[in-house]
Amino acid sequence: MCVARRRGIVCALLAAAFYALNAPAAKLLLGCVEPTMLAALLYLGCGAGMAALGAARRNRPQEGLTRRELPYVVAMVALDVAAPIALMLGLSLSDSASVSLLNNFEIVATSLIALAVFGERVSKRLWMGIGLVTASSAMLSLQCEGGLTLNVGALFVLAACVCWGFENNCTRVLSGKDPLKIVVIKGIFSGLGSLLVALTVGERFPGAKDVLMALLLGFAAYGLSIFFYIHAQRRLGAARTSAYYAVAPFIGVLLSWAIFREPPAAWFLAALAVMAAGIYAVTTDVQ
């Protein structure tokens, strides 16, 4: 395996580890912060934190954004307004372990969009993995208690994953540019967009302590995660970066069990097994 690919894998795994903090920590904050406001604070923390990090270190000059990339930047920001709001709404209506696991549907969305738009190769094994991840996501979208019913929270999470699937491929086009600048743009402008939505629907600012916690979570779970994700995309491409990034939901599930101490239901464990098989198929496809 070449050095560039190894570095890409390390970056993808670091991105996954930081993002795994998102669902369980955000679930705790949702007790004090309303969903759309939390989405705004997370992204503002991402943008502000990465801007401060960039100011504190010396970077080698990298190619800046041009007018040609403007449509992708606008699409990236718009999708990053919609996705975290949908995720926080889903998290407010469902348990964090299920939300963590459902995040793997982002692989399906990213891979299929990468195939349709950019012509990235999707092998038979990758198709198998996509099918299993989709099946597990469908299982998690249903509730078995008191009869089979639709889990509305899961649908919000799946909508977020579709938005991020499109957004990942927009970011792919920009991956040759300065990663730090891209993350700052994503964080600040998407955060301001979400804040406008939050204020429009009547949500209020939380207390100073909760604001600080949300900003710090956003810096780690979104800022550092996105930064390493973009570095990984440079070396691996969108579909394969998503494959390695798929360990994030499983870390999130473990963190959720440790924090909330909720015993998993049999239906969840069955979905977890199907999801694990799908992720194995996807990650072993990477060459």
Description:
With 287 residues, the protein is mainly α. 78% of the residues lie in helices and 1% in strands. The protein has a two-stranded antiparallel sheet with strand order 1-2. 52% of the residues are buried.
Question: How are the SSEs ordered, and which strands pair?
Answer:
Layout: H1 3-19, H2 22-29, H3 35-56, H4 70-93, H5 96-102, H6 105-118, H7 124-140, E1 142-143, E2 149-150, H8 152-174, H9 179-200, H10 208-236, H11 238-245, H12 247-260, H13 266-283
Antiparallel strand pairs: 1-2
Helix pairs in contact: 1-10, 1-11, 1-12, 2-5, 2-10, 3-4, 3-9, 3-10, 4-8, 4-9, 5-12, 6-7, 6-8, 6-11, 7-13, 9-10, 10-11
Features:
about 290 residues; mainly alpha; two-stranded antiparallel sheet; 2 strands
